[in-house]
Amino acid sequence: MKHLLLSVFLLTLFISTKTYAQNDKQDKIKSLKIGFITQKLELTSKEAQSFWPVYNEHQDKIHGLRIENRKLRMCIRKNGGIDKMTNTRAETILNQLITIETTIKDEEIKMYESLKSILPAKKILKLYSAEQDFNRKILEQLKNRRENFRNRN
Length: 153
Prior knowledge:
The protein is built from five helices and no strands. It has helices spanning 2-16, 22-41, 45-78, 87-115, 121-152.
């Protein structure tokens, strides 16, 4: 319980700090995520030593794919939105988005399959749950931060 409270406190502290560059923020979030997952999975030192390289490799690939996805969506906005594009262009972008999303899911499946030789199935399920919980907490913090900012103005 102490670890959870400490993680939430650190997360709150990080989210409320505005002075760091984007890369510093990403590094902080990544560090918080590592701590959160380590605590939730209760990894032994041997498990952690094998787990983190595999997990980080797959997460880096997934992150790159999500950046591609964002670039496509930004391209749509920059060119006047969906209503301004031709159906041919829309079909091309849709196919690209489908390919990216499929590749993300395939990469997640590969990650879980790779982890089967490192962790017991229960810990892999805990990982899935911990990732969802962490993302939910980050989104809640961002929402609260926006609401606090709006209330000040």
